[in-house]
Amino acid sequence: MFDHGQPSYADVNKDILSTMLETGPRYWMLLGTSMSVAGIFFFMPWIYQLFVGVGAAGMNRNAVWGSYLSNFIFWIGLSHSGTLLSAVLHLTNSPWRKAIYRSAEAMTLFSLITAAFFVMVHMGRVWFVHWTFPIPNQMGLWPNFRSPLMFDVMAITTYLTASSIFIYMGSVPDFAAVRDASTGLRRRLYSIFSFGWRGTAREWHTLGWAYTFFAIFVVPLAVSVHSIVSWDFALSAVPGFHHTIFAPYFVCGAIYSGTAGIVTVMYCLRKFLKFEKYIGQVHLDSLGKLLLTLSVIWSYINILELFSTWYGGTSYEIEALMFKLTGFYAPLYWEMILFCAFVPLLMLFKKIRWSWNKMLLISVLINIGMLTERFIIVATSQPRKFLPDSFGYYVPSFIEISITIGSFAIFTTLFLIFIKWVPAISIYEVKETLKPLRRDA
Amino acid sequence: MAIMGTFMYEEDFLSAAENLKTSGFDNISLLSPVPLEEAQEVLGLGKSPVRRFALAGAIIGAIAGFAMAAGTALVFILPTGGRAIITIPPYLIITYEMTILFGVLFTLIGFHFVSGLPAWRDRPYLPAANIDRFVVVVEGAEADQVARAEAIIRDAGADEIRHVEVDQ
Fold it and tell me: Taking CB atoms and an 8 Å cutoff, what residues of chain B touch A173?
């Protein structure tokens, strides 16, 4: 489990807490840069769009959904591996989860927040966002619960709530460690955050049970969230959207891109927070095998999607299929196939799975492929509905491209703030993987 | 007053806890930097009542979810192509999500209720118990029992024994 020898309990506290309590100029530079990029690339174009209307985006009459929604799906997808993987590995008692789950869960939370931004950007008049919630409003009406968009609101708010509680409760013992290691205002704050945790057998016992129940609730929830996101498309009668395979396709794709995202985040944590001692080859190898399995499942579902469309033989579905494979966006489609179906096969080789740099490259390529996948679903289907007189093209505007770039900066900013407020690796769970100090040893 | 015994080794700590328990000390707390199943067994902690909160939350959430969707449909009637006003399949999705939401929220309430956290008063604690030490705390011991408790803790191999005042 540990590449550089087993640390002591005290070492674990010291190593992990020092990343929170000691801050160098490099951190501030990185935070300043990512905040500036978020401001310039995301918020300024958004404010501009609020003034001039959603016409600033490249969406038009046929393509009323564009890159904002494909980005929304991408970020919801990226959120999937964190909490889901953490919950599944907790329930199956996998020891390699313990060093990586905290940051993976944070990834879930911040991806969800970024995804929520895209809903607001897409909706245009963001000041009416409360109309989507089942709360009294000035129209005296409640939302229509038959709509898949309402399923989305319910699923995503539930997922955000459950993920926040899951990561917070798992961090309570570590908040107590921060409290004990700090002074002044920080100590007072973490006394509140940790609820006065002492680590008694009763507290551990209750937390263990509660945490297991959170995990039990989170697993079906995560599966439902991306199934429901897929129904935004699949429940409509648009060629290219209306597929029964969409729910498993989206869930598999979400876990796939989320796992690739975890590899990227782990690489950065190792590199910048010096966590080589805790995040080692065993984690990379396990994630590599998981990614490989997911890539094969993802490829299989893709082939099934093509087959079922071809076998159905409906003229407009065949037209949508041929447009995807050979039309305007065909280069993007084949790029996606290359990055998500073929490149990951390199992980069959242990030499690749054990190389951090190569795995970083593969994980980034997978997520480029997955971002493209979501774009292709939206961009090749809606502008090609049924009759040729309504056929058109959708190309994202500069505003949309800028907002897409800015969203990555929002995620980075949130993550950088997170690592200074919450131990990026679970202190007590890493200690659990160590052999206890025994008198006879 | 409380007696606190600090241990370096897990097995000494567990042996002190077991001996205190068999000697009739009931008000003991076992502080450790990691969860220890053996310590929970010494205190006789079996299945946690948290699970009842989770179940209750899930049931209430399911009922509330369906009632919200069906109730909304009945208050704001929206006839669609001759379909039923209360349409079961889409409302089951709302029910499903609310089941999970309430299950999670009630589990959270259950955690706070059962664990007694947040703690509103100072309790005997050593920061080392969150790093690499195991601590046995005996509270509410009568004057004649203090020496006996100390002896048990010392015999088990405690590094240090302290007496601390406890807020009532």
Answer: 130
Interface of A with B in 189-208 (CB under 8 A): 192, 195-208
Question: What does each C-alpha distance from A414 to A30, A80, A103, A410 come to in angstroms?
Answer: 12, 17, 12, 6
Encoding tokens for residue A359?
Answer: 């795995």
Residue A437 lies in a domain: no
**Helix count and strand count (H, E) for chain B:** 5, 4
Across A4-22, average pLDDT: 86
Q: What is the pTM of this model?
A: 0.91
Predicted confidence band at B158 (pLDDT cuts at 50, 70, 90)?
Answer: confident
In angstroms, the separation between the Cα of residue B23 and the nearest Cα of chain A is 19
- Find the mean pLDDT for residues A102-118: 91
Q: Which fold has domain B2-47+121-164?
A: Alpha-Beta Plaits (3.30.70)
pLDDT in tens, A401-424: 999 999 999 999 999 999 999 999
- Alpha-carbon distance A365 to B86, whole Å? 46
Q: CATH 3.30.70 residue ranges in chain B?
A: 2-47+121-164
Backbone angles phi, psi at A323, to 5 degrees: -65, -40
Residue B101 and residue A61: Cα distance in Å, rounded?
Answer: 37
- Could you report the predicted ipTM of this complex, rounded to two decimals? 0.94
The residue count of chain B comes to 168
